[in-house]
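R.M. (postdoc): so does anyone remember the format we settled on? I'll just put the structure tokens first.
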């Protein structure tokens, strides 16, 4: 099978592509109600520009229970939907939001950066996000409102009091003082954290905080006793940015009160799986290994076509989570780049709870990190089932990514990291990485053709900037984890008068759709 994206990754959603592969409306039969609540993270950022009304409307069209968005104040005091302090990443302006008056924002384009389809999409006011409820048939969507700065609580309260009927909200923040202020003002507040802690649990209990939300894998940091339901009575448990299939399945089985996600179709399908196979406690039914990307090992003629490329022999896994036989239709989907694959059967028969391994050859790639290949599997009952059977006749379509990953080693001896040449004819650029104790130091070696080059890196979810050098603190217990930590780096600078980024792997710039970050592993990790 050969796959090639015919449109950019922003212009064709996973759902549309899977529809064409399987002939199935992926939303069919997935009207499974909460818990958990499933919200779109900043809307649906793989299909529409983040923190826009277009993204929120798309979330409701897909059947999500609501959406999460970020609030900041502009210079004239109005609350608007914006994640960053500056407008540069998600609009055609480079202004600081705190210095921009509201009339200045009326002329800003918050959609053209994403695709031509959204040219002219405005920066929304908080009032406009609340008005979306009036256009939504059926149950009112839940708003998870993340306050990115202080001084917003009173304005949020006043706006909510003007809306009838008042929408269901969770007013969230990483800042405990802001959360306490919101809860004391009578708003259902949510404390956010990267990982759950007993100190946060005690704060939530003492202040009567309505909800507590942590990042991917964040609930695993608690001892089992600290995570027991009895200790969280009166405080909802949430997660944010759940995208990996196994993490979503775990959230649906707990169940959490809710979570937000960048992959709504996947999350809705997994919630249906948890409801339709309630006795199943096995792993996620699709197993896909990571694909190691090593540009340095490619022949020069291949690198000239694109460095985010490789050839892999992979073993995929399928498991039937249902207590009856199923027929599984399989497809590989390539949202960006050009690929060839061999060895994947189109149809597989599985007995109840049977597992099967599938050996597949995969070859291809692209110039730039972006959306990774996906395995799609449509599960249908093998024989006609009674009407009361949980799995509907249309079946259940699940997916899992084959994530392309680049690896760096935290070595006391300096190692060169060659940056990707994402454009034809780009000169080489590089930096070095060297470990010293509990830190790694990045040093700019050659900025390619960039002027004013300086370093940027992200380690374990924390993004930092430096000059010609940048020191990063290694995560706690780094050496005990052979899988390492998410890591990426690059050089920011100016090319022909325009800001430009050279990068070592995906994960930069921030947001979704730019490919997966690499991994930084300890020297002792097996390779």
């Amino acid at each position: 099978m050969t796959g090639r994206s015919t449109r950019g990754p922003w212009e064709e959603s996973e759902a549309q592509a899977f529809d064409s592969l399987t002939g199935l409306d992926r939303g069919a039969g997935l009207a499974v109600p909460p818990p958990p609540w499933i919200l779109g993270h900043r809307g649906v950022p793989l299909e529409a520009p983040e923190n826009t009304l277009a993204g929120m409307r798309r979330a409701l069209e897909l059947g999500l229970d609501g959406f999460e968005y970020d609030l900041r104040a502009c210079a004239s005091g109005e609350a608007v939907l914006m994640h960053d302090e500056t407008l540069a990443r998600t609009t055609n302006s480079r202004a600081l939001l705190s210095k921009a008056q509201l009339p200045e924002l009326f002329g800003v384009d918050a959609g053209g950066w994403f695709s031509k389809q959204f040219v002219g999409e405005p920066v929304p006011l908080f009032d406009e996000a609340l008005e979306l409820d009036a256009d939504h048939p059926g149950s009112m969507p839940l708003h998870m409102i993340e306050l990115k700065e202080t001084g917003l609580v009173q304005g949020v309260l006043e706006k909510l009091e003007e809306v009838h009927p008042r929408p269901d909200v969770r007013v969230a923040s990483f800042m405990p003082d802001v959360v306490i202020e919101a809860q004391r003002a009578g708003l259902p507040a949510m404390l956010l954290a990267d990982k759950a802690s007993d100190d946060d649990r005690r704060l939530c209990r003492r202040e009567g905080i309505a909800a507590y939300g942590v990042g991917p894998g964040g609930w695993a940091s608690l001892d089992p006793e600290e995570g027991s339901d009895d200790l969280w009575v009166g405080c909802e448990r949430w997660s944010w940015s759940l995208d990996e299939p196994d993490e979503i399945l775990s959230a649906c089985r707990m169940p959490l009160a809710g979570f937000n996600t960048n992959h709504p179709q996947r999350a809705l399908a997994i919630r249906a799986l948890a409801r339709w196979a309630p006795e199943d406690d096995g792993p996620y039914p699709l197993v896909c290994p990571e694909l190691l990307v090593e540009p340095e090992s490619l022949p020069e003629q291949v690198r000239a076509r694109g460095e985010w490329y490789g050839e892999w022999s992979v073993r995929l896994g399928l498991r039937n989570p249902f207590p009856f036989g199923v027929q599984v239709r399989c497809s590989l989907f390539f949202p960006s780049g050009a690929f060839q694959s061999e060895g994947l059967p189109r149809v597989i028969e599985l007995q109840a709870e049977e597992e099967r391994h599938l050996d597949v050859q995969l070859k291809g790639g692209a110039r730039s990190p972006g959306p990774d290949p996906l395995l799609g599997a449509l599960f249908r009952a093998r024989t006609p089932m009674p009407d009361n059977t949980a799995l509907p006749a249309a079946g259940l379509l699940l997916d899992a990514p084959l994530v392309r990953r680049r690896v760096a080693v935290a070595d006391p001896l300096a190692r060169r990291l060659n940056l990707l040449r994402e454009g034809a004819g780009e000169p080489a650029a590089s930096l070095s990485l060297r470990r010293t104790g509990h830190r790694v130091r990045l040093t700019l070696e050659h900025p390619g053709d960039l002027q004013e080059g300086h370093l940027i890196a992200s380690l374990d979810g924390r993004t930092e900037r430096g000059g010609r050098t940048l020191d990063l603190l290694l995560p706690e217990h780094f050496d005990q984890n052979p899988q390492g930590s998410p890591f990426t780096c690059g050089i920011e600078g100016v090319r022909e008068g325009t800001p430009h980024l050279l990068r070592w792997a995906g994960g930069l710039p921030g947001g979704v759709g730019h490919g997966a970050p690499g991994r930084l592993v300890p020297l002792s990790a097996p390779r």
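R.M.: ...and that's the designed sequence above, right after the tokens. Also worth knowing: Residues 286-405 form a domain with the Immunoglobulin-like fold (CATH 2.60.40). Residues 1-15, 20-25 have pLDDT under 50 and may be disordered.
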